[in-house]
Amino acid sequence: MISLQNIEKPYPAGPARYYVLRRITIDIKEGDFITIMGPSGAGKSTLLSIIGMLDGTWSGEYYLLEQPVHKLNLKQRAELNKKNIGFVFQQYHLLDDLTVAENLDIPLSYRNVKGSQRQAMVADTLDRFHIVGKKDLYPSQLSGGQQQLVAVARAVIANPKLILADEPTGNLHSSQGKEIMELFKKLNNEGTTIIQVTHNENWAAYGNRIINLVDGWITP
C-alpha cells in the first residue's frame, strides 16, 4: 500500500543542512497497524506529514496505492489525500468557524457523498462518539479532550483506506484513550491501514509493528 524509498528531509542550517529524516525506507501493507516511536525531535511527526502529503519538500520515492507521489503535482497529491487518508492531528486542526457537525461533514464533501447520506453519516458518527449533545457547538466551546474526540471522529467518518494519527490520545483521559484505541483496532480489523505516532507503550501494543526513529534514522 505504501512504499517509501530513501526519503530524506533536510532543513538549511547556516552554510550546512540539518537532516530531520535520513534514508527512510519502509514498506507498509494494506491492513497493517504501524506505530512510530522515538524521542522528541526524532522526526516522527515529520514522517507522518510526508506520508499524509502535508509536507512536499523532501527527496526520495514515495508510492501510495501504486501512485508515485514524488511525481505528482500539488493538486494531484491533494486529491489522493482527500480520497484515501484520514488524519488525526496533535493540535486538532478543527475549523473554528464551523460547528462540530459541520466539521464532521467536511471529509464527506471531499468525497462527493450525497447530502442526505452525509447527514445520516454525521448523525451516526455523533452517536458513535457520544457527542450528539455537542453537535451545534463550536470548537472554542469544547474542552481539549472533546476537541480531540471530534478530530478522531472527523478522521474516520468517511471510512478512509489509511488513518494517520499523531499522538491521537495525547489530550484524552486514559479511559477515553483506550476507547479511541479500541476503535482504531476495530477499524484495523475491518481492513483500514493505520499509522500512529505515540509515546505510550500500551497504545503501541495495539499495532502489529513498531518503527523506531532516533535522530531521523530508523533503528532496530
Notes on the structure:
The protein has 220 residues and is of the alpha/beta class. It has a single domain (2-219), classed as 3-Layer(aba) Sandwich (Rossmann fold), CATH 3.40.50. Helix content is 35%, strand content 28%. The strands form 2 sheets. It has a 6-stranded mixed β-sheet, with helices on both faces. The protein is globular, with a radius of gyration of 17 Å. It starts with a strand and ends with a strand. The model has no long low-confidence stretch (mean pLDDT 93).
Key descriptive features of the protein:
220 residues, alpha/beta, four-stranded antiparallel sheet, 10 strands
Task: Please give the structural blueprint.
Layout: E1 2-13, E2 16-28, E3 33-37, H1 44-51, E4 59-64, E5 67-68, H2 74-84, E6 85-88, H3 100-110, H4 115-128, H5 144-156, E7 162-166, H6 174-189, E8 193-197, H7 201-204, E9 209-214, E10 217-219
Parallel strand pairs: 3-8, 3-9, 6-7, 7-8
Antiparallel strand pairs: 1-2, 1-4, 4-5, 9-10
Helix pairs in contact: 3-4, 3-5
Structural class: alpha/beta
Query: Hey, roughly how much beta strand do the residues contain?
Result: 25-35%
CATH topology: Rossmann fold
**Mean pLDDT rating:** 93
Distance between the termini: 22 Å
